[in-house]
User: Fold this.
Amino acid sequence: MYVTLFNLAGPAILAWVLMIFLPKWRVTQWLVRSAIVPALLAVLYVIGIVLLIGENGIGFMADFGGAEGVTRLMARPEIALVAWIHFLVFDQLVGIFIFRDNMHHRYVPIPVQSVILFLTLMLGPVGFLSYYVIRWARSGSPGGRRAEALV
Assistant:
């Protein structure tokens, strides 16, 4: 079942391809606005977590508290596959944030945005940090040009 969840998550790459290569296409714009891809991936993740808890009980999560425990957990294929879906969800959300923010404020040209999105796809935090540093440098603020109110 975990391999099936992994395989169902695979088409999420199409959203990345659209954000990177066709950022102005209306289908891409809709996908980014709707955030439907990470929502669908999150459904797969929830199914995986429910299966893991059903098989192992909730106590297996206690191993996430230390490096040895995490290593032991990630050595289990079913946990590694569900963790991979977790990564896919959050990398996609970060990509959507970068896409939306840059398309609105244009901190970087679209070709640079595409490179940053590729970095986010392949090396999540590297892409985010690249965008964050550039946005801060270009706007003069860590919150961007117009820091949105959190309330």
Remarks:
- The radius of gyration is 17 Å.
- Residues 2-139 form one domain.
